[in-house]
Amino acid sequence: MRLVDRSLPFAVAVVAIAAGYALSIGLDGYFVYLGMSAIVAGISLLGLGVVTGSAGMISLCQLTFGAVGAWVVSALNAAEAPGGFLVWLLLGGIAAGLVGVLVGLPALRLRGINLAVVTLGLAAAADLTLVQLQFPGVADGLSVERPDAFTDDRSYFLLAVVVLVLCCLAVHYLRRGRWGSGWQAVAFSERGTAAAGASVRTSKLTAFAVSATLGGISGGLLTGQVGLAFPASFTAIQSLALYVLAIMSGAHLIDMAVLGAVLWVGVPELLKRWGVPQDWGFVVFGLLGIQALTSGGNLGTAVRQLWYRRSREPATLALAAGTTSAEPVTPGAPVLVVRGLSVRFGEVVALSSVDIEVPEHGVLGVIGPNGAGKSTLVDAITGFLPNAEGRVELDGRPLTGSPAKRARSGLRRTFQQDRVPPGLTVEAYLRFVARRRVSTAEIAEALDFFGCPAARIPLSQVDVGARRLVEVVGHLLARPRVLLLDEPAAGLPHSEHVAFGERLRQVPARFGVSVLLIEHDLDLVRSVCDTVTVLDFGRVLAAGPQAGVLADPAVLKAYMGETELL
Ligand SMILES: Nc1ncnc2c1ncn2[C@@H]1O[C@H](COP(=O)(O)OP(=O)(O)OP(=O)(O)O)[C@@H](O)[C@H]1O
To answer: Which Pfam families match (predicted)?
Structure first.
């Protein structure tokens, strides 16, 4: 199976190149030219798919990156630089990639409409500048020289097919690697990304860099196609239309980027044949884009979901109680120590001078009524609330800095809300969160222990309760010193709480991880926790061994009306 998985992309690549060759000799000359245009658009769309589809950011200046690539190729051609067209094409891509990193910098702070305005503004400014400057060599009529073996349109078309296939392979492997997982993670939740110890900044910048590099290659390829580059090929309005097409088709999926490219060239061509001005193509794309944005989906995912729904049931947990025996754990000295933790939200005091200790190889339960400050406590300890006052020590060393830094130091957390990116498979997500080499067998064993769906299943096909346990498994595979769990059983039916508790009880012995568990189900707390801290109105109401704390009259009083479980 693995061998098939590994060789499939190359087999598809060979078939695509063979098809390209057949088309290059079989197609009418006009369609060969249209085909070249579609390939140029396809490479650009692949790039947009990375930044918008995978990483979830708006980028409305993709053709500006194309213009950078075209500019570099034109300038190197005019300068008769050594290396020839293919080297220039690569350099154009690299130059555009660097510009992409610069454009990506605002994306570190801006989101949504603000990022749209910045990138569209950049595209408009580049548009005007290009009209003023024109491309190098154009005034002297210096046509860009194609490589010797690819001078006529048919052979240049074949070269373009090969470049497209190489770009598709690059995107395929990048998406399957750490960068790709980072893009998916950051698109779904920046907090979830940081909690996995990954840099949100790196994920965003690499997405922009890869997207722009592909844009640059596409612009360079266009220059070889047309000979002389003109600003009219790289306008802001075209960038906007390309973005809409990427959203509508779902260009993060390689086949859909190719389909989008066919539409990009095919729709205006059809309009022309019907005697309708080609600019109406933008209107068609606009309408399709509005449909995609309002429905919240795209062609690619719709087709895939249809396929999955037909072929598979959603994956759920298979968590049976009584199938595992709890191993005895002897908690040691405190590994996580929190002193005087205070957090204010304006007038609201969410935490007031809270002290907590998580014993090595122990499970500390943190309970309290709604609004007591439990999630705030986890946020503050893990660095998500930089204004929190107080001291956090892990293994006797002060723990400061960003959430990602704290995660890398050995403090992991899960969230009350779903932060597991649906675009990844279970395995890709686990490897991303684990941040270390984990064998396939280790992954399978950990998933099996928690009754989670198999590694190969896409997370989009996993129900929310199971996804939250996959999140727990990922962080356990990271082998942190301490794992903070914020209501991990919230998505599970109550019948599975007991089974989950049995597993959790074994976590310190099995994974060598100490646990802080926030939980409302007091049966679960009783069955799992050695010690318990009770929060009420942001203060510690009681703390100590479980039995004593849960029988404390003050605790009982705080819980009156909140739950009958005590
Ligand atoms: N971002 C915020 N801005 C303002 N107030 C906040 C914010 N986050 C939390 N609070 C307030 O801080 C207090 C503690 O909230 P927190 O979510 O930590 O409680 P909790 O014990 O986790 O509750 P629950 O059990 O419902 O999850 C509440 O009064 C809440 O309204």
So the answer is: ABC_tran, BPD_transp_2
Last residue of a domain, one of 250, 277, 310: 310
Q: Separation of 373 CA from ligand 1 center, angstroms?
A: 6
Q: Does the pTM of the predicted model rise above 0.90?
A: no
- Identify the residue whose C-alpha is closest to ligand 1 atom 4: 345
Give the count of alpha carbons within 13 A of 212, CB side only: 28
Say if ligand 1 is within 6 A of residue 374 CB.
Answer: yes
For ligand 1, atom 30, the nearest C-alpha belongs to 371
451: containing domain: 334-559
Q: Does 290 score more than 50 pLDDT?
A: yes
**C-alpha closest to that of 405 among 136, 201, 186, 117:** 201
ipTM surpasses cut 0.90: yes
Identify which of 468, 475, 357 has the alpha carbon closest to the alpha carbon of residue 410.
Answer: 475
Q: Are residues 293 and 364 in the same domain?
A: no
Query: Looking at ligand 1, which residue's alpha carbon is closest to its atom 8?
Result: 376
Angle value at C-alpha 332, between 328 and 333, nearest 5 degrees: 165
Residue 88 pLDDT greater than 90, yes or no: yes
Average pLDDT, the chain: 88
Predicted confidence (pLDDT) per residue in 247-258, tens digit: 888 888 898 899
